[in-house]
Amino acid sequence: MNYKQSKIILLVSVLTLVSCNLSQNVVAKPPLQQDLKTTPSVLSTKSNTGDSATHLTYKIATYDSQLMGANRTYGVSLPPGYEQNPKQRYPVIFLLHGGHGNPSDWFIQNKGEALKTVEQLYTTGKLPPSIIITPDGNDKRGSSPYRDPEYIDGPNGKVSTAVGDELVKVVQSRYRTLTNPDFWAIGGLSSGAWGAMNVGLHNVNHFSILFSHSGYFKDKSGPTNSPIIYIKSIPTPAKKRLRIYLDSGKADIEEIDEAKNFSQVLNNLKIYNLFRQFPGSHTWQYWREHLADSLTFVGEQFKSAEMESMAHNVGINNKNP
Residue 57 — left, alpha, or beta (φ > 0 → left; ψ -120 to 50 → alpha)? Predict the structure, then answer.
């Protein structure tokens, strides 16, 4: 089933619910932020065209970062049909690189090769067309083989805020994005997975969907930058909106234990999450193979958010009884 067909089914389902005067939840998920000024009624259906792959590109862009006091780079892949549909707005996915990395890692040969994965997900309708951004997670010292990126606001720069707020606003000003955080996702691999959780939880006004491949969730800098601790302190409405995906390779012993523990904390807090284990270890091969799993989860959340928006627009009560 392609995405256009699934949208028709979603609309029929909503209309059926209306005709029955139901007041229960449309989907079995935590209620999402409802703001008719920012919540769209539809996502793009231009995902399964035969030539979508030829329209998918990736490039490096720059912006002047006031927080970091220098030009910063980021990568961007625009969805197929972006130039041909000037009124269409799109969901956004931030992909964070890991240790000793840079914004191109997710897309280059022998590393992430993400264009192949994204093209396939667009073609099959598992991921609605999206604007994909790969931020620079390095601090003022730059990338180094001797240290991981620090996705925190620390002595070497306010990287967390630069990625999670400043760059978000740059992206919103340059591209046709949806503004509702239910249509914004952030994820990464290894230290970028920790970074995605840390940046995302400190910027829940921008991101509702977080995902981690082989991540860890406790940082040496303390509880403020340790998602497994910090998440307990975020406001209840934000907790209810969050949707979190975790995976790790079975041979990645420390990371899989971290993911299990974090998932248990999320369950205790009643935060919607999915934890999966796969054969593999801490390698690019593993991350290439399972990027499709996290982005499929992201696509499901985008579609769920759209369905709730449609239900809200036609008057279905979406709040828990």
Answer: beta
Amino acid at site 192: G
- Show the beta-strand stretches assigned E in the chain: 59-65, 70-77, 92-96, 131-135, 153-154, 157-158, 184-189, 209-213, 243-249, 272-278
Predicted TM-score of the model (pTM): 0.85
* CATH (residue range 44-306): 3.40.50.1820
Closest CA to 77 of 98, 50, 55: 55
State the residue for tokens 């990645």.
252
Tokens of 48: 């399964």
Burial of 21 (0-12, 13-18, 19+ CB in 10 A): exposed
Q: What are the structural domain ranges in the chain?
A: 44-306
pLDDT tens for residues 166-204? 999 999 999 999 999 999 999 999 999 999 999 999 999
